[in-house]
Each structure stands twice: as structure tokens, then as C-alpha cells.
Design a protein that fits this description.
Length: about 675
């Protein structure tokens, strides 16, 4: 919002929220009605009927620019400005479609009530020529002086400052203005359109092409990466006066008092307001190469509809935790309206993408502790969770993709790569050990994050405030991480009850934990805290259930009241639960407490964070993602992956926990609210 909001700042339909699209419904139905109820007094109008498809095209066109811009800027190649984008900017720019609704309403009203606005032919050359001339002359000239006047203190503080709140621009920044300012711009852009209407020279192509041209140039000017080849201006020097570039307009957002032009810089040249560094910034941006990351986090989409929640998807969805059901206000649209697009994209996603892609770029400015500036990137494997859990053949393909990602990161000069979600596991790749065995000369360090994840779970249990004695029930698979947690709990005097098939299995586990050949007194005392489920009785203890992503809804319902569920898996165990068998829509019980998957709140020194990591809240990251950054910040030697083993007096859990706190990370212990349904992964 502007610093001193003036009149007509708010959009009239702001209170409607996501129901604002209903404003277009009467006109859409009216435009389609002649197809079914044609009469002598009213014939079908092609131009009127095409208005709604054209509005959809504008939405798609803008979304393509958003996704493409975020993809290009995350790789840094040709990026113009390095300033970070945060959640505040995403929220401020979330109403970018209001502009399309406003113009859609105006187009419908004009076609319905203006003489000459309906039954337009497909093409008229004279209308196209007049539109080009009127835009080049009056529109560009009047916009230039309107723009300069909007930078006067009075108008700037009440209107235009809202637009300039975004220094590092995204394509949709171009249409982020107060309602009153949009009315001014619309009046300007209507000059060529009304001319065609009143002179009878209008055509469908001229109308659609002119609005598409405006959208294209607006998006290009705010995309924050340069791509117009210099050879174009070398061959045709006059184009500098009639065709601006992204770097040209970017200077307007950093310098404020230069480069006022709409799309054609000629009026800046005429009135002497061209920024002197325009050519230099243009050349510098074109020559800028891709940055080499210091840390890479390797993840993957969870479900087909999760692609919309990726940073490269819908900006507003990516800025919120990924949930399903009533908690996601767009769930109905994604599930029932966009399913054809989701299906098509899923096929293309897997068939055409045979390698990882850059999803996100962050900057860790650790100036207070290590004085380091880490370039952090998130890469995604183009596969879904169900494929990781599928056939052995699919796992082989996925392992090849992971291996290639590790080698690419090593070649790019990255110091650390952390394996997120299902990119690690005993069955998948021996928790990353297969890659080390296959490539023993890797310079990059592979981190599976088990130490930090274990420390978060451990501290969440030891910090529980309860008057009853806490007993931990290990109800998930005995993975590397589960064993790590169980051992640490036993060493701290907390009883861990393990459910195994037989007594022999339990004795094997005990011997794996506590080797009798080198058992210290502390180890022997800890061994007494590992208890088989057959020998355990509750005795009024408060139960903490450690669960993983294979924990079943049946086991969940069998837990006693006031049970605390703490997951140690990367994916929430209740993600695959069915509805409450008693008929309630909620999948979680109100008489129990549910913790988040291991995660930490990030410090302010971690910048350019404007999307949520899967189901986690804003500025909260998974332990596995944080672990890679800590490994690089602390310059720890060696890999942190491979099969689990015990070291006497191993203090890695305490070491990584202390490192996380020292660098500003804080544990995320906030329980999952029982009124929400957690998303399926």
C-alpha cells in the first residue's frame, strides 16, 4: 500500500476475496447464451464470445512470465538486480489478476453498450496501423508525463509508492498499483481502442494483439533478467528509441528519477531523463554468467498437484504451506478445475525432464559468526513421492538422477549437497553411501541430515513440560535416524519401547546399540532403557510415539489419550491418513498432540526466502535442508551419510545442535493444530 493512501486506493471488490471472479460470471453467461438461445433480435457475436477466452489467455501469459522469470533468476544468468524478494512482496503482489478483472469488465461493457464495439471482423489493416500510430504518439507521450507527475511527492506518496515498494521486480510487479492509478492507465490505453470503435476500424486481432503487446512489454520490463541480444541494437540502432529492455526499466526502480518511459524510451531521450548507466547495466547483465552454489539442497515434488505450490508455480500458493482440503482455499480449483492441466503437466514433467532443475536461490549472510556469504540453491528431481516408493526399476532411474545431480553440483563447485525428502534411504541408496562408493574422489560433501533431525526430535522430547514420566514408543521403522534417536534417548535416561517381531530381533538391536566388547558404565546403564514392547506396561506414564511416514491410521486410532506424536520422517505420517472413522472430516484426534516433522525456524540472515518448503510454515525449513548449510558454514570434513553405526562418545548430535543455535536457527516445536488436515505427500 502507498505510504499515504489516497482516494480510490482499494479495489472495489477487495472484500470478495477469491470470489471476486464471480463479477465476470453474468457477462460470460451472456456472451455464451446466443449459442443456445439465438433469436432474430440477437445473433451470435464472435468477438463478444472470445472475450472470456482472451482473459484466460492473459492469465496464462502472465503466469508463463512469472514461472520463467523465477526459473531464470534462480540460476543467476543475466540477472539484473541481486536484491532479495521476501514474503511481504509476494503478499503485496498477490492481487495481480485484479487488473485483468477490471479490464475484462470494461471490455464486456464496451462491447455491449458502445456502438461499433460488437460484431468485430477478424482483421482490418487500417485499424492496426492507426493503433500503432496512436500508441507511439499520444499514449507514450501522455504516459511519460503522467508517470513523471506520479513521482511528484503528493501523488507518489498516495499512489505510485505502492508500485515502487518492489525494488527487485517480478513480472507481475508491472500491474501492482492502487485502483485509482489503474484507472488512469486504462484511460490511456483506451485511446487506440476507442478510436477503432468510433471509426469503425476495429478488429478482433487488433484488440487482442494490442492488449497482449502491453502485457508482454510490462512483464518483460519487470522480469529482472536481460535477454534481448545486443546484436539487435547494433544492427538496428533506432530500436533503442522504440523498444526498452528489462535492465532499462530496472534502473527506474532503483534510481526513481530516470527512465520514465512506458515501452519506448524516445521521450526519455527527448527530455533528458535517460539514466547514464542504462547501456552499461544492459551490457553487464547480458554478460553475467550462472553463479556457482556453495550449498545445494536436493528435493522433489510430492504429488502431481504440488507442482503449483513450487516456487516456479503459482507465487501465492508457493508462499503458503502445502495443505489439502478446507484449509487450502484454492484446493477446489486445483483438484477439479485444473486437473486436465495437472495430468498433462505430469506427463511432460516426467517424459521431457531427464535431469534436475533449479527451484530456488537463497543467500546466507553469516556476517556475525563466520563472516561467510553462502550461495544456496534448491534443486528438484522431476519425480513424485509415489514413484520413489514404486518398482525397483523406477528407483534405479531416480538413483541415476540423484547421482547426476551430485556430480553436476560437484562440477559446479558446490561444497555440500543435502539429500531432502525421499532422495535418501536405506532401500533407495543406503542413505547416500552408494554414491560415495561409486565416486570416491568426490570433492562435494553429501549430507543426509540425520544428526540435526535427531537432535531436534531429542530436544523436543527432553523439553516436554509434563508432570508424568515420559516413555517413548518407537512405532516406526528402525531406520538410521530412528536408531540414532533411540540411542541418544537411552543415553539420556529416557526409556524407549521398541516393537519388534521376536526376542531375537530385539537382542540383535540391543547388541547393535551397545557392543559388550567396549561397553562403558554409561553404555550399560543406557542399555537398560531399551525395552521390548512385550515387557512394557504403561503405569500411567505419558507416552510419546515416534512415528514415520508408514505409520498407519489404524495404529494412530489405537493410541491412548494425550499421546504425543512426534514424526522423525521427512514426510508427515498423517499425510496418508483417511478421514476419522467416526465420520469427522478431521483426520487428527483432538485428544492427542501432533508435532511437525523435524524443522527449524531460519534467521533473518537467510535471505530471498519467499516460498514455503512443502507443508512447513513461512521461514521454517526442514532439518535436512538446514543441515547442509550448517555443514558448509562450519567447514566440517567428511560426508554425513551412509549406513548407521555407533561411535563411543559420539557427540555429533550435540555438536550440530549447538552449531544451529549459534548461526541463528531455532527449533520449530509448534504442534500441528488438530483442526487442520495435513497434506498428502
Amino acid at each position: 500500500m502507498a505510504s499515504k493512501p489516497g482516494i480510490l486506493t482499494e479495489w472495489p471488490w477487495a472484500t470478495l476475496g477469491r470470489f471476486k471472479y464471480i463479477l465476470l460470471a453474468p457477462f460470460v453467461l451472456d456472451s455464451l447464451s446466443p449459442l443456445f438461445f439465438e433469436s432474430d433480435t440477437r445473433k451470435w457475436d464472435l468477438s463478444y464470445s472470445l472475450t472470456f477466452p482472451f482473459l484466460l489467455w492473459r492469465v496464462i501469459h502472465n503466469q508463463i512470465w512469472i514461472s520463467f522469470s523465477r526459473f531464470r533468476t534462480s540460476k543467476s544468468k543475466n540477472r539484473i538486480l541481486d536484491k532479495s524478494i521476501e514474503f511481504e512482496q509476494v503478499d503485496r503482489e498477490s492481487n495481480w489478476d485484479d487488473n485483468i478483472i477490471l479490464q475484462g469488465l470494461m471490455f464486456y461493457l464496451g462491447q455491449k453498450y458502445l456502438e461499433g464495439g460488437s460484431h468485430l471482423p477478424l482483421w482490418r489493416t487500417d485499424g492496426v496501423v492507426m493503433t500503432i500510430l496512436l500508441h507511439t504518439g499520444p499514449v507514450e507521450f501522455l504516459y511519460y508525463w503522467l508517470h513523471r507527475s506520479l513521482h511528484h511527492h503528493f501523488l507518489y506518496s498516495r499512489y505510485h509508492s505502492h508500485h515502487h515498494s518492489s525494488i527487485a521486480t517480478e513480472p507481475i510487479t508491472s500491474v501492482i498499483h492502487p485502483f485509482g492509478e489503474h484507472l488512469m492507465y486504462f484511460a490511456l490505453f483506451m485511446i487506440p481502442l476507442l478510436n477503432m470503435v468510433f471509426t469503425g476500424t476495429g478488429s478482433i486481432v487488433a484488440f487482442a494483439a494490442y492488449i497482449t503487446y502491453i502485457d508482454f512489454m510490462n512483464n518483460m520490463g519487470h522480469c529482472n533478467f536481460e535477454f534481448i541480444p545486443s546484436s539487435l541494437f547494433t544492427t538496428f540502432p533506432f530500436l533503442k528509441c522504440i523498444f526498452y529492455t528489462a535492465s532499462y526499466h530496472s534502473l527506474h526502480h532503483t534510481q526513481f528519477r530516470t527512465n520514465y518511459a512506458l515501452f519506448m524510451p524516445m521521450y526519455d531521450y527527448i527530455y533528458g531523463t535517460v539514466d547514464k548507466s542504462s547501456d552499461e547495466l544492459y551490457e553487464t547483465s547480458l554478460k553475467r554468467a550462472e553463479e556457482s552454489p556453495d550449498v545445494v539442497h536436493l528435493t522433489h515434488p510430492t504429488t502431481p498437484d504440488s507442482i503449483y505450490h513450487l516456487r516456479l508455480g503459482f507465487a501465492s500458493l508457493a508462499s503458503e504451506p502445502y495443505t489439502r482440503g478446507a484449509n487450502n482455499k484454492y484446493y477446489f480449483i486445483i483438484k477439479w478445475v485444473l486437473w486436465p492441466l495437472t495430468f498433462l503437466w505430469s506427463i511432460l514433467f516426467q517424459r521431457m525432464l531427464s535431469h534436475t532443475f533449479v527451484l530456488e536461490r537463497n543467500i546466507f549472510d553469516d556476517h556475525q559468526v563466520t563472516k561467510k556469504l553462502l550461495q544456496v540453491q534448491t534443486w528438484a528431481i522431476p519425480r513424485y513421492s509415489n514413484q520413489y516408493k514404486g518398482l525397483t526399476k523406477q528407483r534405479g532411474t531416480i538413483n541415476s538422477l540423484i547421482e547426476k545431480a551430485i556430480l553436476d553440483a560437484d562440477k559446479a563447485g558446490a561444497k555440500v549437497i543435502s539429500l531432502g525428502l525421499l532422495n535418501q534411504g536405506g532401500e533407495m541408496n543406503k542413505n547416500g553411501e552408494v554414491y560415495i562408493q561409486k565416486h570416491p574422489n568426490l570433492k562435494i560433501k553429501i549430507v543426509d541430515g540425520s544428526s540435526l533431525a535427531a537432535s531436534i526430535v531429542l530436544n523436543s522430547i527432553t523439553n516436554l513440560k509434563t508432570q508424568q514420566q515420559v516413555v517413548v514408543m518407537m512405532r516406526g521403522r528402525l531406520t538410521k535416524l530412528a536408531c540414532y534417536i533411540a540411542l541418544a534417548l537411552c543415553q539420556r535416561g529416557i526409556q524407549v519401547v521398541v516393537k519388534l517381531q521376536s526376542t531375537d530381533d530385539f537382542e540383535k538391536l540391543r547388541s547393535r546399540f551397545f557392543s559388550t566388547s567396549s561397553a562403558s558404565q554409561a553404555s550399560l546403564l543406557a542399555a537398560n532403557n531399551l525395552i521390548p514392547s512385550t515387557k512394557y506396561s504403561a503405569h500411567g506414564n505419558r507416552q510419546v510415539w515416534l512415528v514415520d511416514d508408514e505409520f498407519s491410521s489404524e495404529e494412530h486410532m489405537s493410541a491412548p489419550k494425550e499421546t504425543i506424536f512426534i514424526p522423525y520422517s521427512q514426510i508427515p505420517p498423517w499425510s496418508n491418513f483417511k478421514k476419522n472413522p467416526k465420520g469427522a472430516a478431521n483426520i487428527l484426534r483432538k485428544d492427542c498432540v501432533y508435532y511437525s516433522t523435524p524443522a527449524m525456524m531460519i534467521p533473518s540472515s537467510l535471505e530471498n526466502v519467499h516460498s514455503c518448503e512443502n507443508w512447513l510454515p513461512r521461514r521454517v525449513m526442514s532439518a535436512w535442508r538446514v543441515a547442509g548449510m550448517l555443514h558448509a558454514l562450519e567447514d566440517w570434513e567428511g560426508h554425513e551419510c551412509g549406513n548407521w553405526f555407533i561411535k563411543e562418545n559420539d557427540n555429533m548430535i550435540d555438536k550440530v545442535w549447538a552449531a544451529g543455535l549459534r548461526h541463528g536457527f531455532r527449533p520449530y516445536y509448534l504442534p500441528v493444530p488438530c483442526t487442520s488436515a495435513v497434506i498428502a505427500a
